[in-house]
Amino acid sequence: MNALIKKFPRGIPALGLKPIDVVDIRNSKFWNDERVGAFWLQFDLFDQVNYGFENTTITKVNGFDENPTSSLIEIHGRIPSLIHKGSYFSQGRVWIVQLNSTGESFSDFQNFRFVLKLKVIMEYRNNKRYLKIYELNPFVNMDRWVFWLDNFFESNTDLTIAINQVFNLHWVEFWNELEPTNLKIFASVFRDIFEDVFKKVSYDDMFLPVPKEFAVND
What are the GO cellular component annotations (predicted)? Predict the structure, then answer.
């Protein structure tokens, strides 16, 4: 895995491996409060991309055995800096201040560590076995989340800067609040990376043949 990541950051179309140096992300509704009360926020992300997957180091893999459907597949890894860029649209109310803004968003997940837990089923095509993901759950940790929104208060640059500073000072609290949404986004990104590979490359062709001297006879 590490050899493929380092040697082919722009992917291998024949194997279904998509480019990982720039990874497109589906549009998402990041925050979706009801429009009631003194504080509510609706926040959409679009035209999103990730940078940094090409610097991934896979640290541990479990479950890719003779019958991968009988156990949980786990993939552990780390990325020094995972950058997330795109655009946002927000509407809301913060006390007496109305929000209605569009701008650029930026995130840097520093020293990003992940564990992917996959459950798969087996499909058979052309007398070969192919994996299909039916469940993928990511678990992530990081040293810091740097976040910035341009133009959050369209007519007040000072207030935009102040809000961004508050966010970055208290990023752990914001992460805890937004973790479920973030994990859904990460799950879709990782799933998109793996699904095409599993669809195009049979499970039997993913591994080198076992040399005869190491073969085990039942």
Answer: extracellular space
Q: Which runs of consecutive H residues, i.e. helices, occur in 99-215?
A: 157-169, 171-200
Decide if 25 contacts 77 (C-beta within 8 A): no
> What are residue 58's DSSP bridge partners?
77
Looking at the 3D structure of the chain, how many domains does it have?
1
pLDDT, average across residues 43-64: 93
Separation of alpha carbons 137 and 190, rounded Å: 9
CB 130 within 8 A of CB 157: no
Query: What is the domain extent for residue 185?
Result: 1-214
Query: Crossing angle, helix 157-169 and helix 171-200, to 10 degrees?
Result: 80
Are 73 and 62 in contact by the 8 Å Cβ rule? The answer is yes
CATH number where 148 lies = 3.15.10.30
pLDDT digits (tens, 9 = 90+) for 53-62: 999 999 999 9
The residue type found at 27 is N
- Other Cβ atoms within 10 Å of 192 Cβ, number: 14
Is the model more confident about 170 or about 65? 170
The pLDDT tens digits of the residues spanning 163-182 come to 899 999 999 999 998 899 89
Residue type, 181: T
| Backbone Cα Rg of the chain | 21
For residue 136, the cross-strand partners are 118
Measure the CA–CA gap between 140 and 1, rounded to whole angstroms: 19
